[in-house]
Amino acid sequence: MEQGRKVISTNRKAWHDYEFMETLEAGLVLTGSEIKSIRAGHANLREGYIQPRDGELWLLNVHIASYDEAGKFGHDPLRPRKLLVHRREIIHLLSRVQEKGLTLIPIQLYLVRGKAKVEIALARGKKQYDKRSALREKDTQRQIERALRERNQ
């Protein structure tokens, strides 16, 4: 863990389903009850994705649980959230997304010095055979480590 970086949520499914080309850190526009809920660790990136609208990037389908203390002044858990990214980075990402098969997905939600950040990735979906070979390699590596551990005991 980096200095001052507290990971709140990780999109583990994305590591299995996508091959990452590049990553980028982006800020989030949040309401008060949303940041309090994130600080309490109540966020889920599993089904989230990023969509461009009017030259801006929006984080969609990310669930940030309602903050109980907010009462009726709370927030909608699945509302779209604007990402804070420099204009030249948006232009670069959008030009890359135009390529066939590339998409933008959130990988990790974390706090840096009290501010919520999301790590986004330009990714290409893996084919079924890629997923199987990745699992096979992981299993092989696990067997090698197990054999080395038994040998060293």
SSE diagram, text form:
Blueprint: E1 5-10, H1 12-17, E2 18-28, H2 32-39, E3 43-44, E4 49-53, E5 56-60, E6 63-64, E7 81-84, H3 87-97, E8 102-112, E9 115-125, H4 128-152
Antiparallel strand pairs: 1-8, 2-7, 2-9, 3-6, 4-5, 5-7, 8-9
The number of distinct structural domains comes to 1
CATH architecture: Beta Barrel
Number of discrete helical segments:
4
Strand order across the biggest sheet? Answer: 1-8-9-2-7-5-4
SSE class: alpha+beta
- Along the chain, the helix and strand elements come as EHEHEEEEEHEEH
The low-pLDDT segments are: none
The CATH topology annotation reads as Small Protein B, Chain: A
- Number of DSSP strand runs: 9
CATH superfamily: Small protein B
Q: What characteristic shape results from the CA principal axes?
A: globular
Helical content, roughly? 25-40%
- Return Rg in Å: 18 Å
Mean pLDDT figure: 85
Cα end-to-end separation: 30 Å
- Largest sheet descriptor: 7 strands, antiparallel
| CATH class category | Mainly Beta
| Strand percentage | 35-45%
Describe the model.
With 153 residues, this protein is of the alpha+beta class. The chain has a single domain, classed as Small protein B (Small Protein B, Chain: A, Beta Barrel), CATH 2.40.280.10. Helix content is 33%, strand content 37%. The protein is built from four helices and nine strands; from the N terminus they run βαβαβββββαββα. It has helices at 12-17, 32-39, 87-97, 128-152, and strands spanning 5-10, 18-28, 43-44, 49-53, 56-60, 63-64, 81-84, 102-112, 115-125. The protein has a seven-stranded antiparallel β-sheet with strand order 1-8-9-2-7-5-4. Strands 3-6 form a two-stranded antiparallel ribbon. Strand 8 and strand 9 form a beta hairpin. It is globular, with a radius of gyration of 18 Å. The protein starts with a strand and ends with a helix.
